Amino acid sequence: MFTGKGKQLTIFFGETDLYHHKALYTAIVELLRREGCSGATAIRGIAGFGASSVIHTAAILRMSMDLPIVITVVDRPERVERVIDPLREMAPNALIIVQDVDVVQSGAPLKEGLPDVKVAEVMRREVASVRPDSPITAVIELLLDKDFTAVPVTDEQGRVAGMVSDSDLLTRGGMNVTLSLKRAADPEFVRELHESLENPERKVSEVMTREVVTIGPEAVLGQAARLMVEKHLKRLPVVDREGKLIGILGRLDVLNTIAAVHLPQWHPEAHPAGQQAAVGDVMTREVPTVHESATVEEMFEMLVSSAHKRVVVVDDQRRVVGIIADSDLISRVSRESWPGVVELLRARIPIARISGEARGHLQKLRAKSVKELMTREVITVHEKMPVASALALSAEKRVKRLPVVDDKGRLLGIVGRTEMMRALLGRSQEGKGV
Predict the structure, then answer these.
(1) How far apart are CA 131 and CA 152, in angstroms?
(2) What percent of the chain has pLDDT over 90?
(3) Residue 403 burial (C-beta neighbours within 10 Å; 0-12, 13-18, 19+)
(4) Exposure winner among 22, 69, 253, 354, fewest CB in 10 A?
(5) Which H or E run includes 161?
């Protein structure tokens, strides 16, 4: 949580209101949690009336009536503003109000550098899963429609039998391009990629990872985060004592929980890092970088050689002016250029070694400039920013890797979620003398 200026969001609607065949209050609470809100409370009223002027009451003979539901959220202004439009779409007939509040105290306890909560309080209970005999094309379609890159495999009893990820599909499933690139392309191109699979009817059981790391619902969040870091995982299936799947905990769920208790807005003068791990301590200094005047060919050379899958664009003073990710590139070039661009990104070899056909597609991009292809609104972090605040910002803005800058905005390095999570957990153990 946080203290200081905030906003209170209140939503009024009826108990029988639905959203996609689900109780509206359940759908709203789930949305607020996905968006990283610090908390939400749903209250069922005992009596009330709305625009219909019909009085609803919880009297013993009127229990089936549409009683009022009130959901209240107190959070940072920017987060409240971010959820208003989705809420208006979900609940067009609800009364939604927002008012300014002063948060004078927050009771969010921390453990191992993370909020002291159990996995059951953070995990997602509605879990997409597949069966071992499902075709891999079904997995690809499922993952393309979601914001994650791995899905649990369950048997007929609902027990976890494996995990299938984009890495499994690339290494053993015959998929020739990453899911992030597929998501950036249009449906027609995705269909062509499906057709290029070596064996579209291949079963999940043939490509899945069978040794799966799981966690129980009663485990604390710090334990789950440590497992993710140590095992290089982005999702943890949550199982009961019989090994049956009851939920899923993603890295973004952990980060959203961190964001609920750490304030992303930070500057060195007002909030010195002190004993906290700082971004500058864990960043990578070798950053794929091009000048804003660079040619597209020069940018490609840097992009295909980068493990970060992105290139930072700088000016004469090395200040960050833009960024280019491989998935952004697909969405900003013409349809006819996609095959060549995909071959370049998939092969990750120098331009001099690519085929003549791919080179021909690349030539068509010469009319484009780095400035036309880059994203101008770049989320950066200061080298002295505490790792916890940077992780909160990463969750808030949905950015996996953040350029690190000095006081003058000059590029110093780049930092990812894994390095920051490891630093946050490692520092908490140092404090215990472990």
Answers:
(1) 9
(2) 32
(3) buried
(4) 22
(5) strand 160-165
Give me the domains of the chain, ranges plus CATH numbers: 4-107 (3.30.70.120), 120-260 (3.10.580.10), 279-431 (3.10.580.10)
Checking if the pLDDT of 6 tops 80, the result is yes
What's the rounded Cα separation, in Å, for the pair 239 and 214?
7
Instruction: Show the tokens assigned to 274.
Output: 């002190």
User: For residue 329, which amino acid is it?
Assistant: L
Are 351 and 300 in contact, with CB atoms under 8 Å apart? Answer: yes
> Tens digits of per-residue pLDDT, 289-332?
999 988 877 887 787 777 777 899 999 999 999 998 877 676 66
For residues 383-401, give the mean pLDDT: 87
Distance CA 200, CA 138 (A): 9
Count Cβ atoms within 10 A of the Cβ of residue 414 and give its class: 0-12 exposed, 13-18 middle, 19 or more buried.
Answer: buried
Helices (H) and strands (E) in the chain, counts: 17, 20
219 near 228, Cβ under 8 Å? no
Distance CA 302, CA 339 (A): 19
> N- to C-terminal Cα distance for the chain?
28
Closest CA to 390 of 279, 269, 238: 279
Cα–Cα distance, 9 to 29 (Å, whole number): 12
DSSP code string of 282-313 = H-BS---EEETT--HHHHHHHHHT-TTSEEEE
The DSSP-derived string for 218-266 is TSBHHHHHHHHHHHT-SEEEEE-TT-BEEEEEEHHHHHHHHHHHS----
394, 417 contact by CB (below 8 A)? yes
Alpha-carbon gap, residue 413 to 288, rounded angstroms: 9
Averaging pLDDT over each range in 240-244, 368-372, 394-398, 418-422, which range is the top one?
240-244
CA distance 193 to 205: 21
Q: Compute the mean pLDDT over every residue in the chain, rounded to the nearest whole number.
A: 79
